């Protein structure tokens, strides 16, 4: 028959046309059975001939030739000459079919055709291209030489969720997705959702506590003013924004953003899975399941596909959460540019190696901060992040108030309230200082304010290590945030929200944070502090609490007059005069060799009885936050420690010399003896411990 193509008559044998039609009729039912659809207009090409379902399909390609001797469809004639059908069947089965790679019912057979040129060989003036055996990928049309590499290549496609082929559209089976439920919210994730470098839908179940704390902070802000516009700048699966919209409903207008197209597609699917409507951008196409820009609905989530810096530059928000992979310093300037007054910015930093002083050069590069590994390294990490936040806010003429700072094993979470104006910006910038840290005894103190150089900066440290030890004993760390890390009133309201929404994992941590902010023990914890019985004030905003009187009122994010702001600032200074002391001591780090320490809760009572403020800290399970100097801390610890060896006196407190009482300053000589006892050998430690456990003779005291 004649077929007219591009104004040219082409003669095609009738038998070939019938064979092609017959093959096409056999292909259609097989494709429908395996949920593999034909290609859209974007991918008009057909699959490669080496990709077949059955061995018989390969033989049919050779049957198109009417000769008795049939060539191999996957080998050039110089490699395999035409032969009879029984030899061809054995060749196809042994050389091509047995070493094929299977995927979704298809076999990717090895191909010897001139599809993949290898390095050319120069012979005289001619260039001969040597061809090699290879596989054709059914998904991305890549040519790969080794079978093991081909299997790994297909597995990487499956893990990334890339199952749409250039040749055929392979629909990902339902079994390849996992549905994870958290806080009454369902999300679909890929099998490798816990590996951020290799997946577009990163979901970490260990960050559940982080998500609950951020939700509580947003719920508190939603109680101050409604509705609020909140942004999840790095959506991934959209789990966080879905929880906001599902529980807070009409109080929030949620925007979930991600720059990855596959992540945006999964966010939309998860919205439909949770019966939420999706509001798309004007640029995106509308369909039946989306809501136009004119419609407003409490169950509507806006999904955007932009760079996080771009979306924060274009729009204003009341609440912004940043949770990139690694450091978040690259997005701070954009976050503070358009955030509204008295709004909240929360950021989760997962670059633990740099913040926890394992990669100090990275800390210097990202945060412009010099740190070393100390016993209080987690609090050092939180103050490093807050210092970077403070500088970014000050560049936008904004100040901050730290509401919450948490540093756990996997992340550092910082939540700050934004105060617009140059005066709050200056006040916040003044709280960024350097820290003087003694490397011998781990005593620390913030450098005094001022620009004048001191003749001997070691005088600011309470310890006497510089005078008794050779060389330089202290290092300068920072710049760090020197202000408070917690706001007690905000934490109490977060605890109420956690109880209301049954967030069980966040409640114990919030109770610890409240006690840490007030520097009290847990047995003195109460839901409402006595100082806040009538009203709570934060940043010039009065907040109603369950025990507030009718005189309290609520300001919906409006700026007050200058007189009211001055009066509230005076009250704030009075309230913050008793803020928690910076840093903490690890009781194991300062234990005495050869002595048993008292229980931690008992030791807290002993320090409290000595007249010091004391509390536990979430940064370290064996840490003690107190305003006692390190020398007094060691004195109380030594007094109530008991010896571990047999034959000593009955268990009881260790008696100190008569001249030294708890609550008084310890002379340098006694402190040096304690240090020598810590560094002594095992046999010498028993002797020194006996000396400390028994009272001094009267002649020794007189000497």
TrEMBL record:
Residues 1-41 are annotated as: Disordered. The keyword Iron does not apply. Residues 137-157 form the C2H2-type domain. It is found in: Nucleus, Nucleolus. Residues 11-33 have a biased composition (Basic and acidic residues). The keyword Phosphoprotein applies. Gene3D superfamilies: N2,N2-dimethylguanosine tRNA methyltransferase, C-terminal domain, Vaccinia Virus protein VP39. One of its GO terms (biological process) is tRNA N2-guanine methylation. Belongs to the class I-like SAM-binding methyltransferase superfamily. Trm1 family. This is tRNA (guanine(27)-N(2))-dimethyltransferase. The lineage of its organism: Eukaryota, Metazoa, Chordata, Craniata, Vertebrata.
């Amino acid at each position: 028959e004649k077929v007219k193509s591009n104004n040219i008559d082409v003669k095609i044998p009738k038998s070939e046309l019938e064979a092609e039609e017959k093959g096409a009729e056999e292909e259609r039912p097989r494709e429908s059975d395996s949920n593999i659809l034909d290609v859209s207009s974007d991918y008009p090409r057909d699959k490669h001939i080496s990709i077949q379902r059955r061995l018989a399909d390969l033989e049919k390609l050779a049957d198109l030739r009417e000769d008795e001797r049939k060539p191999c469809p996957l080998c050039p004639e110089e490699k395999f000459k035409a032969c009879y059908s029984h030899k061809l069947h054995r060749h196809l089965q042994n050389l091509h079919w047995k070493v094929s790679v299977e995927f979704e019912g298809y076999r990717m057979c090895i191909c010897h055709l001139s599809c993949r040129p290898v390095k050319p060989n120069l012979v005289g003036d001619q260039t001969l291209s040597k061809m090699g055996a290879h596989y054709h990928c059914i998904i991305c049309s890549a040519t790969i030489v080794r079978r093991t590499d081909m299997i790994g290549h297909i597995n990487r496609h499956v893990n990334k969720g890339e199952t749409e082929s250039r040749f055929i559209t392979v629909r990902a089976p339902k079994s390849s997705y996992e549905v994870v439920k958290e806080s009454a919210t369902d999300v679909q994730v890929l099998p490798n959702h816990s590996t951020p470098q290799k997946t577009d839908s990163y979901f970490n179940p260990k960050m559940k506590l982080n998500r609950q704390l951020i939700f509580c902070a947003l719920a508190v802000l939603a109680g101050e003013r409604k509705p609020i516009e909140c942004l999840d700048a790095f959506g991934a699966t959209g789990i966080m924004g879905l929880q906001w919209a599902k529980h807070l409903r009409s109080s929030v207008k949620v925007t979930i953003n991600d720059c990855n197209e596959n992540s945006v597609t999964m966010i939309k699917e998860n919205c439909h899975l949770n019966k939420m409507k999706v509001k798309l951008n004007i640029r995106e196409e509308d369909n039946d399941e989306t809501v136009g820009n004119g419609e407003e609905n409490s169950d509507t989530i806006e999904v955007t596909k932009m760079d996080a810096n771009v979306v924060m530059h274009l729009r204003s928000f009341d609440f912004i959460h940043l949770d990139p992979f690694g450091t978040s310093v690259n997005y701070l300037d954009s976050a503070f540019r358009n955030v509204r007054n008295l709004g909240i910015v929360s950021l989760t930093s997962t670059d633990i190696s740099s913040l926890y002083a394992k990669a100090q050069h990275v800390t210097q590069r990202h945060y412009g901060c010099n740190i070393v590994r100390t016993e209080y390294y987690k609090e050092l990490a939180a103050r490093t992040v807050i210092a970077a936040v403070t500088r970014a806010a000050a560049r936008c003429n904004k100040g901050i108030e730290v509401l919450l700072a948490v540093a756990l094993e996997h992340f550092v979470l910082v939540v700050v309230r934004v105060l617009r104006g140059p005066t709050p910006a200056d006040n916040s910038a003044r709280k960024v200082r350097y820290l003087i840290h003694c490397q011998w005894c781990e005593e620390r103190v913030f450098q005094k304010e001022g620009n004048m150089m001191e003749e001997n900066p070691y005088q600011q440290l309470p310890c006497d290590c510089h005078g008794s030890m050779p060389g330089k004993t202290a290092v300068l760390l920072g710049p760090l945030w020197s202000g408070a890390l917690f706001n007690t009133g905000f934490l109490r309201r977060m605890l109420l929200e956690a109880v209301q929404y049954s967030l069980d994992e966040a409640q114990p941590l919030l109770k610890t944070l409240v006690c840490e902010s007030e520097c009290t023990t847990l047995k003195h914890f109460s839901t409402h502090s006595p100082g806040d019985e009538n009203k709570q004030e934060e940043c010039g905003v009065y907040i109603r609490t369950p025990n507030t009187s009718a005189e309290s009122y609520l300001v919906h994010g409006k700026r007050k007059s200058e007189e009211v702001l001055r009066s509230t600032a005076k009250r704030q200074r009075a309230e913050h005069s008793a803020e928690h002391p910076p840093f903490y001591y690890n009781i194991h780090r300062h234990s005495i060799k050869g002595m048993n320490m008292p229980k931690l809760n008992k030791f807290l009572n002993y320090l409290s009885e000595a007249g010091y403020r004391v509390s536990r800290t979430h940064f370290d399970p064996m840490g003690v936050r107190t305003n006692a100097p390190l020398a007094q801390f060691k004195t109380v610890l030594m007094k109530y420690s008991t010896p571990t060896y047999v034959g000593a006196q009955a268990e009881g407190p260790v008696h100190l010399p008569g001249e030294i009482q708890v609550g008084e300053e310890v002379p340098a000589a006694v402190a040096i003896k304690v240090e020598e006892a810590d560094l002594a050998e095992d046999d010498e430690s028993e002797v020194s411990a006996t000396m400390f456990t028994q009272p001094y003779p009267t002649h020794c005291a007189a000497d």
